[in-house]
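Lab notebook page, bench 4
Experiment: in silico fold of construct C2
Operator: M.H.
Input chain length: 59 residues
Purpose: comparison with the prior construct
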Amino acid sequence: MSRRPGSSDSARTAAVVNKEIRDLWERSGGCLSPEDEEQYQRLLVEWAAVTGGSARSAA
């Protein structure tokens, strides 16, 4: 379903990856299964890669 980081496909934007993360949490009802947790971890790695590993903090 989702692409893995480093795949031959073009890189997705942080917004696209972030939406997929949000959708995963919504679908799971806030309680991730082991399979969902694996997908979540992959998405976090992909998100960090496209954002340069930086997180914005609220001011």
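Observations: The mean pLDDT is 83. DSSP finds two helices and no strands in the chain.
Next step: discuss at group meeting.
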